[in-house]
User: Which sequence fits this backbone?
C-alpha cells in the first residue's frame, strides 16, 4: 500500500503524521458538515460503501461500542471500531477486529489526506479540524484497506452537526442524555437531546435507554419525522439487574423477539443499561438484517467485554480503581457503583478536570462518600486549576461533605498519584476519576506503559 504514496510523501514517519493531525487542534471543534462533505466528495464518497452502527449519548458510548464490537467479533463478523478520545495511543481510535491501525497504514492515509486538507484550507470553508481529518482517515481505512462487515461508529460531540454524522447507518443508538458540553450543545437536557437526536435517519431504527420524559419526547418526535421505529427501554424492551454472580453482574433482558439472562464482566450500575441497549441493537441486526449470531456467542461476548478506564481495577495492593466519570450523571453512577461493588473502610478519591464542565453537581454526588479528596490537574491544555476545584469543593463541604473530609491540593498529577498510593491502606479503596486525559496518564503510569500518547 505504501508504494502508491512514495512519489508524494508529505509526511515521512508515523510521528510526523500524528503531529500534523494534532497540529490541526487549534482549529477547534467547529460544528458543521461542510468540510467533511467536501473531503468525502474529493475522495469519491468512500463512506457510502460501508455499514455503520452510529452511537451517540452523554455517557456510555465507549462501553456500548465495546459490547457491540466484542459480540460481533465473537459471532464471526469483521468489525471496524472508531472511538474517541483514546486511552493510550493515537492509533486506538481506528480499530479493526480489536487491533489498532498499523502505524505505516495511518501514515499512508495521512499522506493521502494532506493535499486535500491543504486545498480545502485555502477556500472559504477554512481548514478541516483534527477530528474531521481523523474521521476521514477512519472512513478511508475501513472503506479501502480492511472493509469490515460493519463499523461501530462513535460520535465525537452531540450528533446533528458532529462530523461522524456524514454516514447513513443501519442502526442509530442514543445511550442516554445528560448535562455535558453545554457550551456547545445547549443548557437544557432537551436541547442536548435535540443535538443527539440528529443522528436519527429516515427509516433507520434507533435504540435508546434515555429516561427523562422531555428527552423521550424529543427522540420520539424525531423518530416520527424520520418515519422510523424508536426501540426505547421500558417500552419496546426492558432490562432488570438480577445480582452478582462471581465477577459478573447479571441482568434479565426482555426484547420484542426473545429474552436473555446476561452476565457482564464490566463493573458499574450504568453498565447494565449500556449492555441492554447494545443487545437491543444486536437483536435488530439479527432479526431484520440477516446477521447470524448464536445465543452462546452473544452471551460469551457480553461476559468478555472490557473497556479501559471505566470502573477498571488496575491495582489490588493498594486497591485502585480508575473511572472516567467527568459529569454529574457519571459521578452519580460512580457513587452507586462504588457502593455496589467495592466495600471499603475509607475512600480516597483523586480527581482532575477540564475547565468546561459542571463540576459543582459532580462534587455534590461524590463528596458524601469521600474521606480524603486529592485535587490535581490533567496534563492537558484545557485543564481546570486544582485551586479552582478546591474553592468549589470548600464551598460544598459543609452541606455535602462527609464529616472529617480532608482535602489535599496537588497540581502535579504524578505527585498526587504517589499521595493516593501512600494513603490507601489494605481495607481502603482508592479511586482516580475525572477527565479521560488524566485517567490515561495515570493508567499508563500504573501499568508501566511507555508509549502513551493520550489525547483527542
Assistant:
Amino acid at each position: 500500500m505504501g508504494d502508491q504514496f512514495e512519489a508524494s510523501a508529505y509526511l515521512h514517519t508515523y510521528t510526523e503524521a500524528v503531529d500534523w493531525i494534532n497540529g490541526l487542534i487549534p482549529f477547534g471543534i467547529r460544528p458543521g458538515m461542510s468540510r467533511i462533505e467536501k473531503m468525502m466528495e474529493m475522495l469519491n464518497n468512500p463512506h457510502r460503501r460501508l455499514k455503520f452502527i452510529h452511537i451517540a449519548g452523554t455517557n456510555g458510548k465507549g462501553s456500548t461500542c465495546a459490547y457491540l464490537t466484542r459480540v460481533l467479533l465473537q459471532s464471526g463478523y469483521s468489525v471496524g471500531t472508531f472511538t474517541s478520545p483514546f486511552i493510550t495511543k493515537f492509533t486506538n481510535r481506528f480499530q479493526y477486529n480489536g487491533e489498532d491501525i498499523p502505524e505505516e497504514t495511518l501514515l499512508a492515509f495521512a499522506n493521502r489526506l494532506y493535499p486535500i486538507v491543504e486545498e480545502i484550507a485555502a477556500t472559504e470553508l477554512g481548514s478541516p479540524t483534527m477530528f474531521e481529518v481523523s474521521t476521514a482517515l477512519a472512513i478511508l481505512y475501513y472503506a479501502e484497506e480492511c472493509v469490515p462487515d460493519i463499523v461501530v461508529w462513535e460520535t465525537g460531540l452531540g450528533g446533528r452537526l458532529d462530523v461522524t454524522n456524514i454516514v447513513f447507518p443501519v442502526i442509530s443508538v442514543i445511550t442516554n442524555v445528560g448535562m455535558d458540553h453545554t457550551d456547545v450543545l445547549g443548557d437544557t437536557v432537551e436541547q442536548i437531546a435535540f443535538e443527539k437526536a440528529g443522528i436519527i435517519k429516515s427509516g433507520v431504527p434507533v435504540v435508546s435507554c434515555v429516561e427523562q420524559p422531555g428527552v423521550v419526547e424529543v427522540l420520539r418526535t424525531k423518530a416520527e419525522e424520520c418515519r422510523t421505529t424508536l426501540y426505547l427501554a421500558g417500552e419496546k424492551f426492558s432490562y432488570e439487574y438480577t445480582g452478582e454472580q462471581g465477577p459478573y453482574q447479571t441482568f434479565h433482558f426482555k426484547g420484542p423477539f426473545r429474552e436473555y439472562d446476561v452476565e457482564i464482566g464490566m463493573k458499574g450500575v450504568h453498565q447494565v443499561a449500556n449492555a441492554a441497549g447494545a443487545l437491543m441493537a444486536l437483536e435488530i441486526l439479527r432479526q431484520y438484517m440477516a446477521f447470524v449470531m448464536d445465543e452462546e456467542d452473544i452471551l460469551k461476548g457480553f461476559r468478555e467485554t472490557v473497556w479501559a478506564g471505566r470502573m477498571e481495577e488496575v491495582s489490588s495492593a493498594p486497591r485502585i480503581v480508575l473511572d472516567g466519570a467527568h459529569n454529574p450523571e457519571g459521578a452519580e453512577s460512580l457513587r452507586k457503583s462504588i457502593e455496589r461493588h467495592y466495600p471499603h473502610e475509607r475512600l480516597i478519591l483523586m480527581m482532575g478536570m477540564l475547565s468546561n464542565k459542571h463540576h459543582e453537581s459532580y462534587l455534590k454526588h461524590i463528596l458524601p462518600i469521600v474521606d480524603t479528596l486529592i485535587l490535581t490537574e490533567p496534563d492537558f491544555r484545557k485543564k481546570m486549576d486544582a485551586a479552582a476545584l478546591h474553592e468549589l469543593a470548600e464551598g460544598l463541604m459543609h452541606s455535602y461533605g462527609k464529616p472529617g473530609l480532608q482535602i489535599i491540593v496537588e497540581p502535579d498529577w504524578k505527585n498526587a498519584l504517589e499521595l493516593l498510593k501512600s494513603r490507601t491502606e489494605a481495607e481502603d479503596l482508592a479511586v482516580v476519576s475525572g477527565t479521560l486525559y488524566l485517567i490515561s496518564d495515570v493508567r499508563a503510569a500504573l501499568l508501566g506503559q511507555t508509549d502513551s500518547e493520550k489525547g483527542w
